[in-house]
Amino acid sequence: MHFRFLSLPDRLPADHPRLLIIHEFFYAMHNLGPAMTRLLQSTADDAPPITCIVADCLFACTHEVATALGVPRVVFWTFCASAAIALASSRLLLDKGHIPFN
C-alpha cells in the first residue's frame, strides 16, 4: 500500500493568531476545496495515481475534491486524547458525581 501525504501552505504571516480566530479557521477549511483540487490535479502525471482521499471530518471540502477527481474518499472522525480519556472514564466520572456539570 502506498500513501502520499501532500500539504497546502496557509500563506498566513508568522504572527497571525491562526486558531485563535475560530470563525476564520472554519471559513478557510470550507473554502479549501479548489486549492486542494488543483494540488491533486498537479500530481496527476506522477506515479502512482491518486486512488482515494483519506480526510478528517473537518475537511468537508474533500467531498467536492473527490467528486472532481472521480475517486472515493474515506472520512475519519478524530478527537483529541483528552476527549478519548473522558469518554473512556465517563462511567467513573458519573459515579463520582463529576458529571453532569451543575
Can you put this structure into words, describing what you see?
It contains 5 helices and 2 strands, in the order H-H-E-H-E-H-H. Helix 2 packs parallel to helix 3. The protein has 102 residues and is mostly helical. The chain has a two-stranded parallel sheet with strand order 1-2. It has one domain. Helix 3 links the parallel strand 1 and strand 2. The longest helix has 10 residues. The mean pLDDT is 83.
Beta-strand portion reads: 5-15%
Count all strands and give the number: 2
Model regions low in confidence, pLDDT < 50 over at least 5 residues? none
Number of continuous helical runs: 5
How would you state the average pLDDT, rounded?
83
Which tags fit this structure?
single chain; 102 residues; mainly alpha; 5 helices; 2 strands; 8% strand; extended
What's this entry about, in short?
The protein is mostly helical and 102 residues long.
Topology:
Layout: H1 22-30, H2 33-42, E1 53-56, H3 62-69, E2 73-76, H4 81-88, H5 90-95
Parallel strand pairs: 1-2
